[in-house]
Give the backbone structure.
Amino acid sequence: METTEQIKEMVREKYSAIALQNKEDNAASCCGSGCCSIETANIMTDDYTTLEGYNPDADLGLGCGLPTQFAQIKPGDTVIDLGSGAGNDCFIARKETGETGRIIGIDFTPAMIEKARANVDKLGYNNVEFRQGDIEKMPVTANVADVIVSNCVLNLVPNKMGVFREIYRVLKPGGHFSISDIVLAGELPARIREAAEMYAGCVAGAIQKDEYLGLIDATGFQTITLQKEKSITVPDDILCQYLTADEITAFKNSGTGIYSITVYAEKPKEKEAKTCCGPDCCQ
């Protein structure tokens, strides 16, 4: 079993390679894992092309939802995108915030940061920036973000609770997040969970849906809302790289489900300071 650092290094190497590919190559895989399928051109990603602010150079086909569509971003907001890749969600968010807003993309893969910065230079946006860093230790001060978004990234992080704690730290009181991610209902076969390629493909690092939502609740967030949920079907020609025909049949009959969910939650507002209105009302 890989250590946390080994998993991170494997993911970094995989996504460094993906940064050099085009969307068509990445979209023919499970979240960019490279396990090409003849049964479907795209297993997890949703269509961004109809959203205002969409930039094709920034779309690598790596997501599993449309978190910016559900994020309730307002003009002037400060928005942080976790695992920002080539900048796709950042540029959609910038359309919502306008020129008075501020967008910060965080990614720990240098090749992705380089690609994102090249894209923002071409677009000429002066309120969008990209920072290299680990989302378990964000290079951002506390209480700075109005909104945090992330698209199919937290499932790649071994310490998911650590990320939710960082999200809580970085959000302003009353701020909120909208995150798209992969979760499970039931247990994946061990060969899939342990396969590094599937881990980089967003499946094997997923945890149970109830556990995922429980981490959000335990961190202290409120108004936890499931904004969208869809079932993910992994084609047989991908499964056969890890399972025998009999194991594939057993897996399909097991009731195990792989789902893309988009979750919304809010950081509580700071309690208003009590004021003393007279000698008898101070508590």
Notes: DSSP finds eleven helices and eight strands in the chain. Confidence is low (pLDDT under 50) at residues 26-42, 272-283.
